[in-house]
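tokens incoming
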């Protein structure tokens, strides 16, 4: 269950789902990245899938941790950080005010 799953519930104004089991509303088969992959590969997945977090798994698919876009922004030069965050700043179909 991620912050994105919770945001979807709020966007849909589905208050009843807040009383449902987490398994009913979570992302059950999330996109993951293997612990041995390069950070560059993880960033590409985040950009391509427009994700803000990416579970890191071992060779057996067991979760080891969570790579969050905020973690990456601190590692990137300023221009790259803005480019990395841009897909998460405005939802699809939104226009800047």
């Amino acid at each position: 269950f991620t912050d994105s799953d919770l945001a979807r519930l709020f966007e849909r104004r589905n208050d009843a789902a807040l009383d449902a089991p987490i398994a009913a509303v979570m992302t059950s088969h999330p996109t993951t990245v293997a612990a041995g992959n390069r950070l560059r590969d993880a960033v590409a997945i985040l950009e391509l899938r427009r994700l803000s977090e990416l579970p890191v798994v071992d060779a057996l698919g067991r979760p080891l941790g969570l790579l969050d876009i905020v973690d990456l922004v601190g590692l990137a030069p300023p221009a790259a950080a803005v480019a990395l965050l841009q897909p998460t700043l405005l939802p699809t179909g939104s226009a800047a005010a």
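note: The two ends are 31 Å apart (CA to CA).
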